[in-house]
Write the structure tokens for this entry.
Amino acid sequence: MQQTVNVSGPGGSGAARWSRASVEQLFDEPLLDLVYRAQSAHRQHFAPGKVQLSTLLSIKTGGCPEDCGYCPQSARYDTGVADEPTLDTAVVVEAARRAREAGATRFCMGAAWRGPKARDLEPVLAMVRAVKALGLETCATLGLLREGQAEQLRDAGLDYYNHNLDTAPEVYGRIVATRSYADRLDTLDRVRRAGLRVCCGGIVGMGEARAERAGLIAALASLDPPPESVPINALVRVDGTPLSGAPELDWSEFVRTIACARITMPASHVRLSAGRREMPEAVQALCFLAGANSIFYGDRLLTTGNPDAHEDRALLAKLGIAPE
């Protein structure tokens, strides 16, 4: 007899709202049962052998005034990351062209700002227009947005705006003090009202408990609508940051987080993001089995390393996974 599995919400409906308690129950399921449930949900919404490839470029590195405890780009910490000027548009376009030739379909541009001033946004708009002209999907992560800025980005051709919740609401104050959880939600609201698609996820392994990881997933799934793209990052411990000594997260907890993201947000792309360079291939394979269907592709993220493209191609080939 074929086994059936509940892949909908806690009330039996795919549109059901996920409470914090119901997500905690998911996290507590036996790992293999949880992964099976997540893979079943994944197959209802996506082709099982496809992955979306995104490339991320830092267009303005270092010098950020924020105090995010995980970030080597904060001006408050001595991490060896210099405060650099914004890249020229031509440099960004060439990087986007190389990403497209390597197989990426989305090009993400990140800037180490609290939020862009008007003079900062103008060159970014030119970059978005030029990258869009290459036929790539465009994404930007620029910090907090003021009124009207999301509309400017939309009109330039931006497809996605990334602004992560980072962690559960009750943990947030332990990680960041220079902006509030409400600030992040305000920016996400501006992005939605402008008609842009949302890329929003978080970081695990910052010393949080399992129940707090469940709180992050519940907060993401409670966004209305849920993010179209959900990056799940494993903390990269960088010397000089307050979280450099955070305890290493067990691999099984990371896989659980991916699976819970897939089950609670079944129609979203769940991205296996930062931390992959330190992650064994077998763990990455389990993450794909648990519903991850997007990766950052290329040998560098904003300031931290990422697996080489040829390593990723070899891994995807072993798994029988092809780019979307």
About this structure: The mean pLDDT is 90. The chain is about 40% helix and 15% strand. The radius of gyration is 19 Å. The longest helix spans residues 118-133.
